[in-house]
Amino acid sequence: MGALQYCDIPNYSAIIFRRQIVDLEQQGALISRAHEWLHDTPARWSASNNRWHFPSGAVLAFGHLSSELIKYNYQGAEFQYIAFDELTQFWEEDYLYLRSRLRKPTCPDHRFYCDACKIYHTPEEVDLLGTRTCAVCT
């Protein structure tokens, strides 16, 4: 599960989407798989909001888009990792909107590097994100 690769980084935030939350909860689906992998770790499960909380402050969340307007529940949210299980079940507009939630927080320790360095992805992502990132921390 790629979303776990940075769970030791303070304030890292990852989310995995499925069209219906019940699709994530089924036996053998991603939430049950995460329980198998994380049950003997210091990570804590919060069933009320479908999130794993790690000692570093990192969070792995599971979300859904069961209706067209639910994507706006994530307005203002910030994630460093977003994944879609069964992406073909999502509308492109929903996918693009949620990708706009991908951000890297400004690095307070290396702020002076941030203005000089940008990481560019595709031209569309550069236009969409316009994010300045730290050359030291990336």
Automatic annotation (TrEMBL):
InterPro entries: P-loop_NTPase
Short name of one Pfam family: Terminase_6N
Protein name as catalogued: Uncharacterized protein
Species, as recorded: marine sediment metagenome
Upper lineage: unclassified sequences, metagenomes, ecological metagenomes
